[in-house]
Amino acid sequence: MSGAARCNAALYVNRCIFHRYNTEVLIDMDGSHPSSGSPNQNPNSESDGKSNANANTPSEGDGSLEILARRAQESLSIGNGKRHAFWETQPVGQFKDLGDTSFPEGPIELPTPISEVKQEPYNLPNLYEWTTCDIDSEETCAEVYNLLTNNYVEDDENMFRFNYSKEFLRWALRPPGYFRNWHIGVRVKASKKLVAFISGVPARIRVRDEVVKMAEVNFLCVHKKLRSKRLAPVMIKEVTRRVHLENMWQAAYTAGVVLPTPVTTCQYWHRSLNPKKLIDVQFSRLGARMTMSRTIKLYKLPGSTATPGMRKMELRDVPAVTRLLRNYFSQFVVAPDFDEDDVEHWLLPTENVVDSFLVESPETHEITDFCSFYTLPSTILGNPNYSTLKAAYSFYNVSTRTPLLQLINDMLILAKQRDYDVFNALDVMHNETFLKELKFGLGDGQLHYYLYNYRVRHALKPSELGLVLL
Hints:
Its EC number is 2.3.1.97. InterPro entries: Acyl_CoA_acyltransferase, NMT, NMT_C, NMT_CS, NMT_N. Belongs to the NMT family. One of its GO terms (molecular function) is glycylpeptide N-tetradecanoyltransferase activity. By secondary structure, this protein is an alpha+beta fold. The chain has 2 domains: 3-264, Gcn5-related N-acetyltransferase (GNAT) (Aminopeptidase), CATH 3.40.630; 266-447 and 458-464, Aminopeptidase. The protein is built from 10 helices and 21 strands. The longest helix is centred in the middle third of the chain and has 15 residues, at 231-245. The two termini are 30 Å apart. Mean pLDDT is 80; it is low at 1-82.
């Protein structure tokens, strides 16, 4: 694809989250990446709110961008052996090239000159106008929260809907070096009501020895009553334009479907912390030949942690945790490139957003081990007894002195003490070594990791991946 054509291509993000199996999907078509249930949910859909791979297919549009966006969505439901019409035009690894070691590892296409990027915002339908959403403003943050809470993803059976807190949104949207004008809203001109939102944040991801600047795009949401207005393709074009103006052309993203071409394929696992509630709300089911009392006993955890010197991370720990993480990440082919500012932002504990714990040697006061999880609850729809499902997602864990099995078991205990209902983890990094023994259950469906406009010559094992996306 030529540079000029790529400059005009749609940046399309489809982030499907499998609530009951907790598998995230993010699809980004044009060099920007986001960051993080039932299969094939689509929180960014402009359809009827039901979850399916084609839910975000735009209507017939007024130009090539809408056609590209539609074709990309159509490609999501194409099985193996069929052509991926959109992806075959993109700078991504192609199935036909698998096994061909003649291609160099690294960027597939050179960047487009910034002068070729459209300088003015795209036109919206006459009734609507662009707005930059200041997430620091309590009023604006509440507007974004309410839009997502009432119009974001639901599972296939309309039983669960993600409920990102305002604190989570501020955390996710304001990493170091973020661009405020990448937090894009659409308002009704007459009433000024916020009816759509899309966001982007910058990231640095290391691939082997190369640190690559990327854009993470997330939270594409259109009000349910406006899903025939073709707002999504225009929003996709606009966030693409703003990302390109910052000279970013690579992306990392995940999807629950096979596209050209996965860097690696992972599985989500989940560990029951409150099995009775999970069964009562139909998040999980009672096993064959199992009673409720036996199930509760099976998943029961000790009342206190076992590791001496384990405590909550504090601001003074940022330098030590950064050193620990950077050393840990160095063993993986693909991993974040975190500095102290990143560690402070992403891992310093924030109530009901991210929890981090470390082990400090009682003798030397050296920080030897680290573990963390982030919080992403779901609203439980239509249940008379419960309104919220509180889920923890394993983030980054480093074991140097404390056995990883013991460290994670202690983290499960800490999550249980904080009233989480379920704990989820991917089989990336060293996670596979503790999943079965700590009674995690295998999720349904796979999570495929991709790099856009960056070729990795050989597919990776999940254990070679050091990256967790929100």
